[in-house]
Amino acid sequence: DNDLRRCIEHIARACAQIADAVRSGRTEKIATSNTFGDEQLEIDVFADKILFDELRASGVVATASSEEVPTENRLGGASYSVAFDPLDGSSVIGTNFSVGTIFGVWPGTSLLNRTGRELVVGGCAVYGPRTTISVAIKSLPSMELILKDDKWFKTREFSTISEGKLFAPGNLRASQSHAGYNELLSYWLTNKYTLRYTGAMVPDLNQLLIKGKGVFCN
Predict the structure, then answer these.
(1) In 10 A of CB 91, how many CB atoms?
(2) Following DSSP, what letter does each residue of 55-124 receive, concatenated?
(3) Structural domains of the chain, ranges and CATH numbers in brackets
C-alpha cells in the first residue's frame, strides 16, 4: 500500500525533526496548557506542529488529532486518519530523561468511534541515548528502527510479550484511592517483580516491547 508507506515515512520524518529539537533543549515553558490541563513547553507545541505539517505534506492523511489539539483536523488526503501524542513525558525532559512520541493510524477519513482492532499501524518513537521507532504494521512483523545520520535502519523484529517480572506502573497516586490498584501493586512487590518506571509512558512501554516481557498499566 503506497499510501500507507507514505504516511509512515512522513511520521518518521517528523520524529527525526523532533529528536533534533529535543537534543537542542527547547524546553522553555510558554504559559499555556492543553485541553487536558497539562502545562505546555515550547517543544510540545513545536512537536505538534511538525507532525501535523508532515502528515499534511504526505497527501494521504484525511484527518489527524493530537493530545495538544484533540479535535479532528482535516489535512486534505483521503486514505488514513492519525492520532498521536507528539511528546509524551515532556514534564521530565528538563532532567534529561527519555521521552517519546506515540501514534496510531486507521484507514478512512475519521477517528470517531474507532477501536484498536481497526489500527493498521501503531508505533512509538523514543528520544533517549538513541532515537528509535518501534512500529507494528498490520500483517507484518513488528520492528524497531534506529536513526543514524538522518536515516532509519531496521535493528530487530519482535512479536509477543510474555508475562515476565517487570512492571511499569503509571499514576501511582491512584493507588491511595483505588483499592484494586493498590492490591495489584502489592502483588507485584510481594512477588519480587522489578520496577521499571521513568515518568514517561512511551519509554516505559517501549522497554517492555523490546525486552519482550512485563506489564504496563496507567
Answers:
(1) 16
(2) HHHHS-EEEEEESSS-S-EE-S-SSEEEEEEEEETGGGGGGT--EEEEEEEEESS--TT--GGG-SEEEE
(3) 2-158 (3.30.540.10), 162-217 (3.40.190.80)
- CA 33 to chain CA centroid, nearest Å: 20
E strand or H helix at 48, and its extent? helix 42-58
What is the arithmetic mean of pLDDT over 47-72? 97
Evaluate if residue 134 carries a pLDDT over 80. Answer: yes
Segment 30-59, tens digit of pLDDT: 545 666 656 678 889 999 999 999 999 999
Task: Count Cα atoms within 13 angstroms, Cβ side, for 135.
Answer: 25
Average pLDDT over residues 59-63: 98
Task: State pTM to two decimals.
Answer: 0.91
Distance CA 197, CA 53 (A): 32
